[in-house]
Amino acid sequence: MSASKKPHMNLVVVGHVDNGKSTTVGHMLVDLGAIDQRTIDAYAKESEATGKGDTFKYAWVLDSIKDERDRGITIDLAFQKFETPKYFYTLIDAPGHRDFIKNMITGASEADAAILVISVKPGEAEASIELGGQGREHAFLARTLGVNQLVVALNKMDDVEYQEGRFKEVKDNVEKMLKTVGYNTAKISFIPISGWKGDNLVKKSTNMAWYKGMTLAEALDTLEPPEKPIGKPLRIPIQDVYSITGVGTVPVGRIETGKMKANDKVVVMPSGAVGEIKTIETHHTQMESAEAGDNIGFNLRGVDRKQIKRGDMIGPADNPPTVAKEFEARLIVIHHPTAIAPGYTPVLHAHTAQVAATISAFVSKIDSRTGATTEENPKFLKTGDAAIVKIKPVRPLPIETFKDFPEIGRFALRDMGTTIGAGVVLSITEKYDPSKK
To answer: Do β-strands 323-333 and 285-287 pair in parallel, antiparallel, or remain unpaired?
Structure first.
């Protein structure tokens, strides 16, 4: 089967910073044949030349994509593609990125599944899983952002002499952590791997006779492709906009819902600019039409470059995306050093948008497991609290309710370099109308 004929999935790789995400994914891509050995050898040389030894050669595969991105070589640059026997995968925001969580939020909001990489090395595992650890934070974010399918890779087994005892110990702890975050762990595969040596990535390891389960690649093939929300109105959050000589304005993004074809009339929100789709392409291939799940670039006629930017949303001219001046949301506080009071203004990340936003009112505190109200108009919120709140972005934000558009109705709040909270939009309490500017 060719790539385009296989069901397509978007995959995000998450986990604590030195738990070996990049090495694991880079090595898996090589073993799957998505990247050839010559490329890797070249990276190994480059890596040795920088004095890091060849230990980074697999990680460099992904980081080089990031550098390519900085140079703006192609439109497709954010994505590394690979295939398993059953699926065609797009790896979102390769983990080498500097500001990983920010990308993880925009990435996870587009992901169908996640690989959580946790090191089994003593100290590293514990740091990743504990409160405030990135493994836990990423798992929580993935869950809150609606990534329901997860594969756990317990990495660096070579560092613990491939001992079954250590695998079991870390697995139990990760399982407990995932349960508190809300995952059904009965459906999750836990795989002992070595990203560096290659154990259980694609080939069964000869170092762990005690392990009878699947390899990482096999586990990816047990995931379920999502139902495509094709019947809903078109919504495309804009990732980047290019001005291409002789072509014009070319926005790039992933269609979250609906479908589009050449000559469709669309509107860009919040500017309200109306344009026409001239051509559509994906992975350098021209296409007549595109639908939910496709990562595309398209030529938009009639829209000035100044009327469209990252974080904007495109929809049909007769069914424009909603733009909020204020909305009501269900928020979970993931981490805050003290407590949050009304008036607090962190940065809100939703789909591809980033905007400062004020939590203007706390309506009620809720039990995060049952959803029942536990307190009306609370004075403050602290780590672990769930609440219904009102949020006012400092400028109009295209966003939809989670009920109607789960793909674009979720968000995260960040401040001081960490994720403060994540939530979903319950209702838009004040809409913005560009015609009344």
So the answer is: unpaired
Strand ordering across the sheet containing 149-155: 79-83, 88-92, 8-15, 113-119, 149-155, 189-192
Domain 323-436 architecture = Beta Barrel (2.40)
Percent of the chain past pLDDT 70, that is, above it, reads 84
Which helix (H) or strand (E) segment is 326 a member of?
strand 323-333
How far is it, in rounded angstroms, from Cα 226 to Cα 213?
Answer: 24
**From 3.40.50.12780, 3.40.930.10, 2.10.10.70, 2.40.30.10, which CATH number describes the 236-316 domain?**
2.40.30.10
Task: Tell me what pLDDT residue 314 has.
Answer: 97
Q: Contact 406/295 with Cβ under 8 angstroms?
A: no
Tokens of 161: 């002499």
Contacts with 402 (C-beta within 8 Å, 6 or more apart), sequence order: 409, 410, 424, 425, 426
What are the residue ranges of CATH 3.40.50.300 in the chain? Answer: 3-220
Cβ distance 118 to 154 under 8 Å?
A: yes
Could you count the other beta carbons within 10 Å of the beta carbon of residue 139?
28
Is the distance from CB of 155 to CB of 19 less than 8 angstroms?
Answer: yes
Other CB atoms within 10 Å distance of the CB of residue 6: 16
d(CA 271, CA 233): 19
Nearest CA to 378 among 361, 394, 395? 361
Taking only the tens place, the pLDDT of each residue in 245-265 is 888 889 999 899 999 999 999
Residues 6+ apart with CB under 8 A from 44: 54, 57
Residue 161 has pLDDT above 80, yes or no: yes
327 vs 41, more confident: 327
Q: Are 264 and 314 in contact (CB under 8 A)?
A: no
Overall size of the chain counted in residues: 437
> What pLDDT is attached to residue 69?
40
Q: Cα(235)–Cα(292) distance, rounded to whole angstroms?
A: 9
| E strand or H helix that includes residue 363 | strand 353-366
Distance CA 262, CA 279 (A): 6
Supply the pLDDT for residue 55: 57
Q: Is the pTM of this model over 0.90?
A: no
Residue 152 forms beta bridges with which residues?
Answer: 116, 190
3-220 under CATH 3.40.1190.20, yes or no: no
- 378-412 pLDDT, tens per residue? 999 998 788 999 999 999 999 999 889 987 898 88
Cis previous bond, 270, omega within 30? yes
Residue 346, CA atoms < 13 Å, CB-side half-sphere: 24
